Task: inverse folding
């Protein structure tokens, strides 16, 4: 685990880099508002821990992104709105991102690409856009985490849905995890497939058999 100052440095570095890459100035107070959102009490997995893990995975892969600033900013916003009992979290997160970009003076093409990247994290279709494939692989990297981190993630997701009866949660959770397991490939980029595909399938098989 990284020391707190290293985690704060990662967030600051990522935030500054994303906006600088876009050639824009972030609206005042936006980073703080986002960090407050990521720290809301209903969150257990979709927290700044997840955000930091995503940004740390992106950093060495930025060279492979076609629009690195847009990918990085999309990660900042992809779970900015998160209500476990609600629907349309991704769309509301994308709306917030586009509003912020418009306020900063981003053109419509940048706004719509960031929107599309965030909506790709619904995980309801295999991305075709290379940047979306990278972003989705980063979001799903937790499935290929070391077993202890995967178990922590599994418990964190359960905590976010603690209001759902156990029998129903287990059934729904098994369906979700089995859906990933049934894919031809969980990861859409060669690099993430090589690093994480085998372990992700091991984690998922173990979780599905125990659900």
Result:
């Amino acid at each position: 685990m990284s020391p707190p100052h290293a985690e704060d440095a990662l967030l600051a570095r990522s935030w500054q880099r994303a906006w600088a890459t876009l050639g824009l100035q972030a609206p005042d107070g936006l980073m703080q508002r986002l960090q407050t959102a990521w720290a809301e009490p209903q969150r257990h997995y979709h927290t700044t821990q997840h955000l930091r893990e995503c940004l740390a995975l992106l950093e060495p892969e930025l060279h492979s992104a076609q629009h690195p600033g847009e990918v990085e900013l999309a990660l900042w916003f992809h779970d900015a709105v998160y209500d476990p009992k609600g629907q349309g979290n991704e769309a509301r997160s994308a709306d917030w991102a586009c509003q912020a970009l418009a306020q900063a003076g981003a053109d419509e093409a940048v706004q719509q690409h960031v929107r599309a990247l965030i909506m790709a994290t619904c995980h309801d279709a295999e991305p075709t856009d290379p940047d979306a494939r990278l972003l989705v692989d980063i979001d799903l990297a937790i499935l290929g985490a070391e077993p202890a981190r995967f178990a922590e993630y599994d418990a964190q997701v359960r905590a976010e849905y603690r209001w759902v009866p156990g029998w129903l949660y287990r059934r729904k959770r098994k369906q979700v995890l089995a859906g990933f397991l049934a894919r031809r490939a969980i990861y859409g980029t060669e690099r993430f497939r090589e690093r994480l595909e085998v372990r992700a399938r091991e984690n998922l098989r173990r979780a599905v058999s125990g659900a």
